Protein 1
Amino acid sequence: MTDQTSATPVVTALDAATPRPRWQVILIRPETMTLILLVLAFVVSSLLSPYFLDINYILQSFTLTAEFSIVALVMTMIIIAGEIDLSPAANMALSACLFAWTFQATGSMPLALVVGIGAGVLMGVFNGLLVIGLQLPSIIVTIGTLTLYRGIAQIIAGDESIRLPEYFIGFNTWLIAGIPAPDLLFVVLSIGLGLVLGTTIYGRQIYQTGTNEIAAQHAGIRTRRLKMGLFITMGFVSAIAGIITASRLGSVRYDLGLGGELQMVLMAMLGGTYIFGGRGSILGTFLAAWLLSVISTGMTTANLLPATQLCVLGVLLIISIIATNFIYSRTQR
Amino acid sequence: MKKSLILGLALGLTFATGAFAADPLKIVYVGKNTGNPYFDSITGGFQDACKQLGCDFLFVAPATAEATSQIPIIEAQIQRGVNVIAIAPNSPDALDQVLDEARAKKILVLTVNGDIVGNETHRDANILPVDFTKTGPDQVELMGSMIGYKGEIAILSATTEAPDQNTWIAAMKDSLANNPKYKDMKLDTIVYGDDQPEKSTTEMEALLSNYPNLVGVISPTTVGVAAAAQVIQQRGIADKVHLTGLGLPSEMRDFIKDGTVKAFQLWSPYNEGWLAAYFADGVSKGTIKNEVGQKFDVPNLGTITIGDKNVMNTQAELTTFDASNIDKFNF
């Protein structure tokens, strides 16, 4: 009661937060940390081994993780929208298995591609229906479908590998202006999705949905449709990534891309995407994908022990989580 | 934008990796995975031979024996400019493309202690300890002699895609089905411990609970047989369940001495490294022609013949280790 009289007039310059200087807004971002780590990784890798700093080698090495990186871009959007999808690596395996199996059975490459990619989309739809239609938590649903999709892949392919025709093998060795095709695809997709997320209304809606879904719904955003779209896109992109992997390896097994989902989440986290949604960027994931590739290539080229490599990756992830949380809590209005 | 910056930086420094004139022959051996003592022995053979021959030797391996885990390592070795890549392949076909890339750069590619079955054209030569087609039947015979050729048995293998184990298991199945001597032996199941001690132990324990009538287990992998022996020793069931397989004398010595395991088999992994290094050295110097039917002499091993599909063996048949001879071997 007494407060009412005193509280109203005291909203002065003392209480109002001063706007952060522009340089802070631009520089103090999780992506900056990723960029610094990336530069650091280049420097350290070059010091570790004289064989590392060769642009063709670095680009070629990136093709080994380009497939996961491509999927990680869509993963970033899903996490920003407040969900997660852990099934894409299994989706890659099942799409690739169905693709190879169809080709083996019919000998028709176009048909095989349609079946493989179609299956990927259907898997995305299935995830979406469970998460959005039945209102189940996406982390549980997609752990379930992760196991299911990989299981079906093993039923189809068994313990054998399915060979692919010579002309289909080696997408990673196609060079376009000196850049391996998967790398280029990743760059183009990053720019495209970066623009969608950063400049379009649809992109803003993804952020709003992840920040507060109820508020977003009240603001007229069709969050369910939006999320469904993301899950389907994820299925589509995973299938493409699976087929690219098949082309790189020359054969398909049920264990294709095993454990890839963790790498994708790792890329999103290292790039500063906030695990609880609402924050993150394609640029961050783009940088993080290169960071991971450079680090593991650098350490492998220097013949570091796998145990050392795992420790470095673990420490890196923890640093990035701490930094991301710190930066977000400081910049929270 | 950021990327072009990085690329520019990298481009500017590319000169750092010019062509290096490699004086000593650089040999690298890519193992299946780290923490697998079997490879220490092969590595020992390479190292000792390289001391004699004056070559540089290095052992590298991925953390897991998963099918594609060796690809980044091979890429890195190509970039490092090694002359010889010897590898124990984790997959019969996932490595084809990267091995071709190595061979296109004039690197001699040898599969050592395993082969890429069905894709032999993607490597230059293969070094195996023994004729692997006899390994399966030999193991079945040893198992049979332990259980009186009667009863239910199971196989504890490495990974589902391990090419050698799969070759041996196929031959074991063939022997069991077609040789009347083994008509009373029944193969219940095959389980996979992925060459990890913990998983192998779990699989072995599951076998014992799922198949109470089991009288024998064959584990044709050193990690598996050691883990299985541990389980049998702990449960004290050595007189009920007989174990054999392919094991390292150093790991199996205690189990032989206390009677947990009566006999197991193997070859000398050390000699594989030794032969591979001498072969690589000879081929690079031009003293050995890598052609089927060629013969050459290797110290301690005698005359080696390059067989069909460029396969070489270090010894004629498996060595059986039991209480009478186990102390003579220290690898």
Note: The first strand of chain B starts at residue 26 and ends at 30.
Protein 2
Amino acid sequence: MTEWKPRIGVVTFPGSLDDRDALRAATLMGGEPQTLWHGDADLGGVDAVILPGGFSYGDYLRAGAIARFSPVMESVAAFARAGGPVLGICNGFQVLCEAGLLPGALLPNVGLRFVCRQVECEVVNAATPFTRACAVGERLSIPVKHITGRYHPPAGLDPAQVVLRYAPGHNPNGSEQDIAGVVNPAGNVFGLMPHPEHASDPLSGSTDGLKVFASMREHVETAALVA
Amino acid sequence: MRFRFEVLVSLKDGLLDPQGKAVQGALPTLGWSNVSEVRVGKHIALTVDADDEAAATAQVQEMATRFLSNPVIEDFQVLEVEPAS
């Protein structure tokens, strides 16, 4: 009997950069990576979707503003509404905010500079499909690399939706309340500016990002057992 | 008929605008030290083919709400310049 593997779809938009690393992280987490194309609405029956980092459509108008109208995004929205896990990393986070699948918006960094560095993040909510392998208060060392990463939450954001915060002194972009990652009210859509897929291999110095993918795997496995 | 519009998109009041701050910070070095409250926004010019002015204006309003601006962080203003030839 062959081992069951969750199928993890990674969307490539024009201008995506980190789709390859996300596919690699899907393999490292014990999943079966599946490439998805922005112009194709077919998700191919995947168990989870990742919107990777990059500069889709050149970040023109606003980061993520044009990618959200790609044919694939209607399917991603339907998948999310049905409870499917969706992870947006960096540009993927921006796309999910623009699409209204996540609350808030991302603005240019306070320092007006592109930041590329390792940051410490604290897990605030470990009861999500993306952090269940973590403990509340646990610190993850994950790199950021962006110029539009200042998170602005909507008024009245439920604190339970804040999943990840930059540790004190590590906020790289001026995000309000040091917010690094948020989930939707249902908890099955997660966006974060740090790049867990770049912290998945010992070669890159930290494997803390694997915990996000291990959490997704656990979640998908549990869901498959229940079904 | 063709109608020419300009859409002005600005960051909502109260939101930090580092680009505006950077521009403001540069002005005194050029001798203009009496300038404050600089905000940088976007200007989008476009032409719409429509049956009449009301339809064209309504369409631009909807485009500005759904796409050209992000209502979470931005306000917009639609200016109709002139019926285009």
Note: The helical segments of chain A are 19-28, 71-81, 91-98, 210-226.
